[in-house]
């Protein structure tokens, strides 16, 4: 495992101040990406209770939610009662000097607080205002709340996921619309910050779980646009190339990527199945796709004759792309994962030794990375408000009034 050895070199967003008003996943993933890239992210949690992800247990470590710790590392945290006018004043003061705000509240919430974009841009014209929602801030569904499962279903994603026609719809195992929405929000924020260097003006950035799920269907949408037929699920197979899927081996599964004619011929040579090159059904990709069931039936006995590791050695020698189907735990131990610093060790103030995932983008000069674990509830409340110009007495008054929750030092 990669060990955290103090603060690494700052990332490309060093100096960018972000206020995260977000909970559960899409918004926190957006904040996480910005924080990993070097931004100073202050997560504002509700009073009482904080981010609902804190209660997504099990699993937990020393009473701390593993889910919360995963998507909120690299952030400082404060707990602020926004139902109290004094709490809203504190937040307004923080936003007046922020570069970016990330929020995933229901539509109209920020406006009711007097903190909508039209208001904030008057006091902070350079603010980049990132709004993440279920369906976007415009259109007939703008008022609806959204969840990953709902987005996956409505985007068509669940109709192309699963083992085949006639089977129940299946969601992608990971909450892809939440995660991708957060990444799109971070991309939007970085793009708006770049535009601000030329104009001096911030802007609204609006994306949604729905759109994040829709963009997973690029290939299937291309097919539907061209044919007026909506493709269905293919298990692990590809909608445009074959064979490009998982095959059972003597002891597990292996993914093979014969995504072009050259790799098709390499696969046959590695399998010792050169005779299939002369089969008219399989000579070209168009035929292989049209006869996919027959193709799988013809290839499967070859794969079943050896173990996954044996096939990987053979394919590697032939320069053919293939890989095992790993569990999540096996992935964590994979040497390439460790070499790319995608598993990082941290020391959490309550949970102790813990692991998290690393930054998936590598920079030669401004590397970014994981600098700190997720905050305890209200851990940095005093620190952040002091930086915003509040005196110790003012901070203590807010704590005593229940406007601010501050964790013990």
Model description:
With 409 residues, this protein is α/β, with parallel strands linked by helices. It folds into 2 domains: 2-216 and 342-405, Rossmann fold (3-Layer(aba) Sandwich); 253-324, formyl-coa transferase, domain 3 (2-Layer Sandwich). It has 17 helices and 15 strands. The chain has helices spanning 26-36, 66-71, 85-95, 109-112, 117-123, 148-154, 176-199, 209-214, 218-227, 261-271, 285-290, 292-304, 308-318, 328-333, 335-339, 381-387, 392-400; strands spanning 2-3, 17-21, 40-46, 60-61, 64-65, 75-80, 100-103, 128-133, 204-208, 244-248, 253-257, 322-324, 343-348, 352-357, 404-405. The protein has a 7-stranded mixed beta sheet, with helices on both faces. Helix 1 (26-36) packs across helix 7. The longest helix is centred in the middle third of the chain and has 24 residues, at 176-199. The protein is elongated, with a radius of gyration of 25 Å.
């Amino acid at each position: 495992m990669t060990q955290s050895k103090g603060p690494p070199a700052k990332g490309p967003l060093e100096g960018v101040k972000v206020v995260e008003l977000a909970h559960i996943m899409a918004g926190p993933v957006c904040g996480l990406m910005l924080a990993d890239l070097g931004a100073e992210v202050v997560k504002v949690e509700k009073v009482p209770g904080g981010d609902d992800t804190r209660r997504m247990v099990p699993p937990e470590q020393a009473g701390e939610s593993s889910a919360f710790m995963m998507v909120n590392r690299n952030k400082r945290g404060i707990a602020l009662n926004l139902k109290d006018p004094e709490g809203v004043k504190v937040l307004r003061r923080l936003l007046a000097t922020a570069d970016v705000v990330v929020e995933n509240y229901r539509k109209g919430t920020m406006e009711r607080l007097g903190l909508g974009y039209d208001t904030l841009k008057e006091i902070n014209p350079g603010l980049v205002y990132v709004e993440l929602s279920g369906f976007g801030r415009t259109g007939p569904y703008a008022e609806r709340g959204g969840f990953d499962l709902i987005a996956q279903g409505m985007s068509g994603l669940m109709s192309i996921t699963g083992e085949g026609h006639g089977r129940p719809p299946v969601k992608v195992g990971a909450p892809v619309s939440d995660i991708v929405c957060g990444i799109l929000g971070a991309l939007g924020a970085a793009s708006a910050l770049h535009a601000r260097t030329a104009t001096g003006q911030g802007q609204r950035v609006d994306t949604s779980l729905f759109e994040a799920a829709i963009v997973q269907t690029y290939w299937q949408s291309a097919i539907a646009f061209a044919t007026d037929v909506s493709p269905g699920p293919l298990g692990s197979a590809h909608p445009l190339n074959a064979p490009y899927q998982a095959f059972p081996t003597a002891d597990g599964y292996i993914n093979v990527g014969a995504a072009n004619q050259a790799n098709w011929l390499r696969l046959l040579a590695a399998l010792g199945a050169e005779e299939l090159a002369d089969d008219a059904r399989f000579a070209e990709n168009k035929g292989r796709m049209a006869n996919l069931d027959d193709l799988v039936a013809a290839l499967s006995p070859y794969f079943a004759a050896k173990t996954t590791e044996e096939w990987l050695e053979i394919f590697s020698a032939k320069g053919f792309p293939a890989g095992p189907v790993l569990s999540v735990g096996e992935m964590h131990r994979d040497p390439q994962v460790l070499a790319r610093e995608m598993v990082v060790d941290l020391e959490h103030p309550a949970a102790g030794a813990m692991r998290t995932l690393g930054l998936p983008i590598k920079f030669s000069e401004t590397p970014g990375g994981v600098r700190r674990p997720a905050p305890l509830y209200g851990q940095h409340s005093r620190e952040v408000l002091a930086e915003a110009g509040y005196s110790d007495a003012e901070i203590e008054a807010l704590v005593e009034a229940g406007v601010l929750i501050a964790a013990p030092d």
